[in-house]
């Protein structure tokens, strides 16, 4: 079932968007079943679970972090993390750079933008995003690459609302893309990935639709 779900999703996404499989709350056996299809791009939203899984599962997996990251936890994931999609401050960018340097690596980062109507704790607004991009450009952060933006739409059935939020994020992305050489726009989950892809997402983060019926 997992293999079939992945194959269906990949066919549907085609070259439009990459599939990032969100393995949070799934068993090692389920993740291995996804891995067996040849898929290598996985994400967790919590550092502790990410560390356990990265330790247990094959080393050729590209891991993304999609949940809030505290600066004091960066050192644990810096040796292997491929992309941190949930960057929400300049301070965090600096700490990621510092630990990437210590490990002799480059770590990809996305700035998490707050686009939903409901109150959430994480992410930045457009103004903060522009300010952080301008500030980081003035200091040499040699070991990170800010590749784009990530956003999560409101948890609603109102498709027009979701479309409005994704369109807003795409507009911000487009306005920054040339200056900052962006090539990743992470939006869309199981419930709204079709809308996200239609709005220009380049990578969708999908859990339930891969692991459930
Ligand atoms: C859990 C999670 C997803 C995937 O959600 P599904 O509905 O299971 O596809 C995507 N993005 C983030 C940030 C998540 O925490």
Short précis:
The protein has 213 residues and is of the alpha/beta class.
Give a structural overview.
The chain has 213 residues and is of the alpha/beta class. The chain is 44% helix and 19% strand. The chain contains 9 helices and 8 strands. An 8-stranded parallel sheet has the order 7-6-5-4-3-2-1-8. The chain is globular, with a radius of gyration of 17 Å. The mean pLDDT is 97. Bound molecules: pyridoxal-5'-phosphate (PLP). Pyridoxal-5'-phosphate binds next to β8 and α9.
Defining traits:
213 residues; single chain; alpha/beta
Radius of gyration: 17 Å
Strand residues, percent: 15-25%
Low-confidence stretches: none
Approximately how much helix is present in the residues? 40-55%
Secondary-structure-derived class: alpha/beta
Overall form: globular
Give the distinct bound molecules: pyridoxal-5'-phosphate
Main β-sheet description: 8 strands, parallel
Name the strands of the widest sheet in spatial order.
7-6-5-4-3-2-1-8
By DSSP (H or I, 4+ residues per run), the number of helices equals 9
Topology:
Layout: H1 2-13, E1 18-22, H2 28-36, E2 41-44, H3 47-56, E3 62-65, H4 74-77, E4 83-87, H5 90-102, E5 107-113, H6 126-138, E6 144-151, H7 159-180, E7 184-187, H8 193-198, E8 203-206, H9 208-211
Parallel strand pairs: 1-2, 1-8, 2-3, 3-4, 4-5, 5-6, 6-7
The chain binds pyridoxal-5'-phosphate.
Pyridoxal-5'-phosphate (PLP) is lined by residues 22, 24, 45, 66-67, 152, 189-191, 205-209.
């Amino acid at each position: 079932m997992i293999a079939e779900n992945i194959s269906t999703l990949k066919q549907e996404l085609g070259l439009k968007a990459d599939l990032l499989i969100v393995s949070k709350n799934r068993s090692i056996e389920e993740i291995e079943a996804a891995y067996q299809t040849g898929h290598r791009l996985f994400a967790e939203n919590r550092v502790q679970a990410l560390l356990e899984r990265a330790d247990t599962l094959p080393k050729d997996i590209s891991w993304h972090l999609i949940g809030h990251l505290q600066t004091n936890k960066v050192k644990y994931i810096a040796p292997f993390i491929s992309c941190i999609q949930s960057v929400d401050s300049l301070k965090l960018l600096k700490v990621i750079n510092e630990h990437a340097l210590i490990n002799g690596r480059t770590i990809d980062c996305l700035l998490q933008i707050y686009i939903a109507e409901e109150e959430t704790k994480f992410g930045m607004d457009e103004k903060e995003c522009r300010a952080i991009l301008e500030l980081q450009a003035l200091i040499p952060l040699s070991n990170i690459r800010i590749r784009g933006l990530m956003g999560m739409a409101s948890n609603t059935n109102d498709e027009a609302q979701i479309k409005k939020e994704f369109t807003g994020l795409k507009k911000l992305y487009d306005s920054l893309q040339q200056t900052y050489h962006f090539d990743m726009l992470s939006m869309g989950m199981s419930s709204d990935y079709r809308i996200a892809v239609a709005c220009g997402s380049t990578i969708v983060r999908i859990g339930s639709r891969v692991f459930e019926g």
